[in-house]
Amino acid sequence: MVAALTAGLLLSGCGAVNNMIYKTTGDVMKGFSRNHTVPYLMESDDLAMGCSMSEATAPLLMSFGRVTSEPDQLAVMLYLSSGSCAEEQAREHELAGLAAMYAMDATAAEDAFIRQKRAHTLAARRYLKSWQHHNSHYGNPDETECPDFDDDMDEFMYMAGLLSGLQALNAQIQATSSVGVPFNTGSVVGRATQCLDNKKWWGAPMGLRATVWAMIPGTQPQGEDAFERLAIAAEQGEEAGVRLGHVFQAIAAMNKNDEALVKSVIRDHAESLEANPANEEWRFVDAMATNMLVAISDRLWVENTGHRTPIGQFGAFWDDQREPVETMDLDDLL
């Protein structure tokens, strides 16, 4: 009896020690990831590495919520990034479907579009988790005032959470099946962007807000012009070397079925890449913007030619007028 009691006390003591170690480890990992891993990743332009990291480490880092406080702020970035992984898969399936349609292969096209919707469903679920963790950490923007940010990274993560909310709604629409994203999320995100410093964040808050105006009827305030605001945001992004504004501009143009404007935005982005280097602190965001615009360019190319944007021709299109080549009349030399 005494031996059993002693063993029980020892085991319970071990459990308490283990819990303390787990909690300490969890707190250290959360702090390190927030203060070092995320900033380090933002300085990189390797999107595939960031995608793999978020998918691989999310279960580990989120599991520390079982032994210490929930890592809500870190979860915003993890699920936003992993959602973009699923969205990238959806884009690949869409391109496969469009190529099959161009080749008049209806069965292959249908299969690809089914896979696209499945990937969008996964993306929507991940983006929704990011949005929910954002609201847990900062408060629901529709019910609370603007938070007091501790530092720039705190404010950036707030903006990332707003982006995840809009992406969740968009992915749910693309999936054509509900995963629980409230349909007023776009309006909530649009209003919440006013909590951010527009100049500090390369015009992205205004661009995000104007995108909501352009896509959701009834949200644009009287006297405002969404596309004028988007053009200003795009220019600010070019100057800052973080060209997220071009993405918002292209998305709004696609929603309007304005292919000419979409092409113009892609051309502007390609020219800006040549003229202005990416902001060293935010290379990842700038690379993400380029990747999304390449995807839009690929979609246009596949729809019209059956193949993606040719290497070295980002910013050019199949129907561009070719400059006349000057030739020499050899008869004049004889």
Structure commentary:
This protein has 334 residues and is mainly α. The chain has 2 domains: 31-196; 203-307. It has helices spanning 2-42, 47-63, 72-102, 106-138, 152-175, 185-192, 204-215, 226-240, 244-255, 259-275, 283-305. It is globular, with a radius of gyration of 24 Å. The mean pLDDT is 91.
Question: Keyphrases for this structure?
Answer:
single chain, 334 residues, mainly alpha, 11 helices, 0% strand
N→C terminal distance: 118 Å
Proportion of strand residues: under 5%
Please work out how many helical segments DSSP would assign.
11
Compute the average pLDDT: 91
Oligomeric state of this protein: single chain
Helix content: 55-70%
Task: Give the arrangement of secondary structure elements.
Blueprint: H1 2-42, H2 47-63, H3 72-102, H4 106-138, H5 152-175, H6 185-192, H7 204-215, H8 226-240, H9 244-255, H10 259-275, H11 283-305
Helix pairs in contact: 2-3, 3-4, 3-5, 3-11, 4-5, 5-6, 6-7, 7-8, 7-9, 8-9, 9-10, 9-11, 10-11
The gist of it:
With 334 residues, the chain is an all-alpha fold. The protein folds into two domains: 31-196; 203-307. The chain is 70% helix and 0% strand.
